[in-house]
């Protein structure tokens, strides 16, 4: 019986004395700390672009199946329809801020598109620092915008609309654009100009 106990003890002693087993019992080296990435202008611009893309994806989640074609600065659904509003372009001029939109019908049926700032003037604005700026008017009190739209937009078709607002003051980095019936375009970067 003693000889049967002796063999396992010899095997165990042999295994414990092998170099591989001893190394396995050593403590692992401490994890290496990585330096913080430098925040530079290129990094900041990439972060802004990723935030815009995430906002667009969230807008698409609210409008399942809406087209991603014609993406611009931001894409928003028009609640209750298969229409998609695209903030296509902004122009920052000394005398005004130009906002251009495109509307797409991604549904299988025609959808009614109505944009009439004369009806609800105070519902159309750009906002920054809590201040709202409304569509400019000419000397005859006519709105400085494309004529109102009120028609059925056919499946797969696009319509455009624009308006001019007072210029943004220096130092503004982003602003909101509210053009009913689209959901608001939030935190539009001035750099999108």
Q: Give the count of structural domains.
A: 1
Largest sheet: 4 strands, antiparallel
Widest β-sheet, arrangement of strands: 1-2-3-8
Summing up helix and strand content along with how strands pair, one would put the structural category as alpha+beta
Parts with pLDDT < 50 across at least 5 consecutive residues: 59-68
CATH architecture: Sandwich
Mean pLDDT: 79
Radius of gyration, taken over Cα atoms and rounded to an integer in Å: 31 Å
Element-by-element helix/strand order: HHHEEEEEEEEEE
Distance between the termini: 90 Å
**Top-tier CATH class:** Mainly Beta
CATH fold-level label: Immunoglobulin-like
* Percent of residues in beta strands: 25-35%
Instruction: Please give the count of helices.
Output: 3
Based on Cα principal axes, name the global outline.
Answer: flat
Query: In percent, how helical is the residue content?
Result: 10-25%
Summarize the structure.
By secondary structure, the chain is an alpha+beta fold. It has 3 helices and 10 strands, in the order αααββββββββββ.
Keywords:
193 residues; 4-stranded antiparallel sheet; alpha+beta; Immunoglobulin-like
Describe the model:
The chain is of the alpha+beta class and 193 residues long. The protein has a single domain (41-192), classed as Immunoglobulin-like (Sandwich). The protein is built from three helices and ten strands. It has helices spanning 2-17, 19-25, 41-62, and strands spanning 74-77, 83-92, 97-105, 111-115, 125-128, 131-134, 149-153, 158-165, 174-178, 185-189. It has a four-stranded antiparallel sheet with strand order 1-2-3-8. It starts with a helix and ends with a strand.
């Amino acid at each position: 019986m003693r000889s049967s106990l002796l063999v396992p003890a010899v095997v165990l002693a042999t295994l414990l004395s092998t170099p591989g087993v001893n190394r396995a019992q050593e403590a692992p080296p401490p994890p290496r700390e990585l330096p913080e990435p430098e925040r530079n202008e290129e990094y900041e611009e990439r972060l802004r672009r990723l935030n815009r893309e995430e906002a667009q994806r969230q807008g698409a989640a609210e409008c399942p199946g809406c087209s991603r074609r014609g993406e611009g600065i931001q894409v928003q659904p028009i609640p209750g329809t298969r229409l998609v509003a695209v903030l296509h372009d902004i122009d920052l001029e000394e005398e005004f801020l130009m906002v251009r939109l495109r509307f797409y019908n991604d549904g299988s049926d025609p959808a009614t598109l109505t944009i009439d700032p004369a009806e609800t003037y105070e519902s159309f604005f750009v906002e920054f620092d809590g201040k709202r700026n409304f569509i400019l008017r000419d000397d005859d009190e006519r709105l400085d915008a494309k004529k109102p739209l009120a028609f059925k937009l056919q499946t797969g078709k696009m319509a455009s609309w624009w308006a001019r607002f007072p210029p943004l003051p220096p130092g503004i980095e982003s602003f909101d654009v509210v053009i009913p019936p689209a959901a608001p375009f939030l935190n539009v970067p001035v750099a999108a100009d």
